Amino acid sequence: MRTIRRTIFSLGLAILIVGSTLGQGIDQERMDRDLKIAENILGTLSNDRNLFSGRNIESNYVPDYGVIFSMPQSSIVFASGKAESVSVVSSGSGYSYVVADSPSSDDREREVAKKASAEEQSKGYEEKVKEQMTLFLVDYADLIGQLKPTDRIMVNLKKSRNYVWVSGEKVEDKNMGMTAEILKGDLIAYKSGKASREQTISKIKFTEVNDKMEKDLELFSSIFSRLYEPDMSNTYYASSRNINYERMDNLGAIFSMRVYSSSSDNNGLHTIRTTGEGGLTQEERNEKVNAMYPDFETSLRQNVVDYGRTIKSLKPSELLIIRVRLTECKGCEMPKSIELSVKASVLSDFDSGKISRDKAMEAISIKKESN
């Protein structure tokens, strides 16, 4: 009976995966391979210059938009002097320097000089980041096949926040964030000899990341965090109260979350937190966790439709994207991760009663990464 259930589950899951892939006209396995190679190249290039972290690079293909590479940025903050007032200046290469105004005139002069040096280094850092992004986009991004000429290839250097305490005062350091993008068609023209390297470089669009907080996006993040706490979820639960998101102009909003299912004791027995079932062996735990997946996907679709309509800042053509890293389940048929996307116009039409809840759910596209 267990074998039959697994066979039926696998067949249904395969149909869903194949259906979503064929609808996009994309060989997902080939796309995943191309993106992993591109991630490796981008990480290797960045590590050569120590500009930003070459680890933990994530890439995603978005139908009718293109590919986005997200790169984390880390920094170390140094503090100096006894602070009457403080300011933070990025000094490049992921480092920041806290400038502390001191009662001594000599100290103030030294701090002013350090601040000027930090600002100069920051400008140099920005130019090096642009140079590195340009090298990747022009010389290597064309390795990503299957993209249409109108598809974008974007590198997103994430803005980061760091805090330091200076004389009892909490100071926030915001590192620069930046995106660089180019159309696949511009790379095709360059590789075919129809455009020079200089002309191709001029096609790259650099944008400083907007640090503006969208209240409706913050609200949606808070709602989803609450929905996937153990006392409310019937399947998997989120890892924290904060679900991260990024606002990308002309694309939409991307929310990222990770969900878990169980905890284990010193004897290696597992407890599923959302159901309270305990004393489970690894095999028993995996079978129950695997069986939860269809209900999790259904509820996720429902929650996107029911609560996604609270987001008003997206343009009708922009997307609400939910990326979920699923709980670990080795040898299970359930995916390793999933990504849901839906146009803001669909959510708006549902909110105004133009379409039914079922129609809105059908409009959600889904991609799955297999275990």
Write up this protein:
There is one protein chain. By secondary structure, this protein is α+β, with helices and mostly antiparallel strands. It has helices at residues 2-24, 28-49, 105-139, 184-191, 197-202, 215-227, 282-308, 344-351, 357-362, and strands at residues 58-62, 66-71, 76-79, 86-92, 95-100, 152-157, 161-166, 169-174, 178-183, 205-208, 237-238, 244-248, 252-260, 262-264, 270-272, 319-325, 337-343, 365-369. The strands form five sheets. Strands 11, 12, 13, 16, 17 and 18 form a six-stranded mixed β-sheet that branches.
Which descriptors apply to this entry?
371 residues; alpha+beta; six-stranded mixed beta sheet; five-stranded mixed beta sheet; 9 helices; 18 strands; 26% strand; disordered N terminus
Biggest pleated-sheet summary: 6 strands, mixed
Name the shape in a single word. globular
Determine the fraction of residues in helical runs and give it as a percent range.
Answer: 25-40%
- Please give the count of helices: 9
SSE order in H/E notation?
Answer: HHEEEEEHEEEEHHEHEEEEEHEEHHE
Overall strand count: 18
Percentage of β-strand residues: 25-35%
Computed Rg: 24 Å
The span between the termini is: 23 Å
Give the low-pLDDT segments. 1-23, 75-102, 162-167
- Which structural class do the helices and strands define? alpha+beta
The overall average pLDDT, rounded, is 80
